[in-house]
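Two proteins follow. First one:
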Amino acid sequence: MKIVSAEFLKSAFKEADWPRDERPEIAFLGRSNVGKSSFINSLLGVRGLARTSSTPGRTQAVNFFLINKKFRFVDLPGYGYARAPKDVKAKWNAAATDYLAGRTQLVLSIHLVDSRHEPTNQDLQLHEWLIHHDRPHLIVATKSDKLSNNELRKNIDRARRVLESDEVLPFSMVTGRGREETWRAIEGALKRYAAK
């Protein structure tokens, strides 16, 4: 896909502040330190649109980005690592769950896992939740360039076993590996939404 425009729309802490039009949305989910913002920037071929931080857990709101004036990327709060009070974490989790459960414009969830590590219990819970609620999703294993080909193959096989999924796509922001496949999944989801 050719990216003509990509702009930050808004950060929303509650549903009342979400965009109201019917443009389709692609959501990005994963642990606080999995690199969601970097992944979004890499997909779009831009720097700094989704703000990255060396401190995990900086994304505390639901962040909306308008792409090509036609669809939105949605960066959801990460789970796990964030050093935040329990009540704040509970609000983040509620925001993400409300969004995933009720958003009719959501056409694809991209679940990011770290290719260097075995998927966590939280990764598994999210995967099971998406399946239970019949939400179309793609599992992408980030940071694949940090492993040898042999290590990567073993870790991808392990992730498939843990998550009980045939498809776990290796992705590298450095080499571009997996970028085309990710865009194919996004374009397919957008076409299905347009055909409704």
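Second one, unrelated to the first:
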Amino acid sequence: MTAADGIWLRPIQPRDLPRIFDLQLDPESNRMAVVIPRTREAFDAHWAQVLSDPRNTTRAILVGDELVGYISCFPMDGDEHVGYWIDRAHWGRGIASTALRLLLETVDHRPLLAAVAISNGASVRVLQKCGFIVENVRLSPASDRFPECEEAVLVLR
């Protein structure tokens, strides 16, 4: 467990998954992140894979006792990536920045990458506050999970 400013991280537990499922359904959060929410079946399959892979570092973000999101470090396409999701009711409070700093204290992998829709300025700022640098901007093609969008690839070396 890692904590700072009343925000703390702990490993995801199976009892967290219903809350995480509900968080990923929020239309405004999906618009900002430029992502398509998963169906229950796809969500369950994704999280079963995530939680069974020892290469993933996936943590619940809590404020006090309330689960307000999650953050993770995971391998993808030969690189280590970070990603996070915060309950919209808690946006603008520095939770994502604090959670990312806490995760970075426990994850030794470098470089770390993050891909963010350039329209999601808040997330770009979170990453930059934690030392990530925009390496490039690219057009990301549409998939079953993501609409086509311009995305920034940020790197922490």
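SUMMARY FIELD: The first strand starts at residue 2 and ends at 4. Strands lie at 2-4, 7-11, 57-63, 66-76, 79-86, 112-117, 133-140, 149-156.
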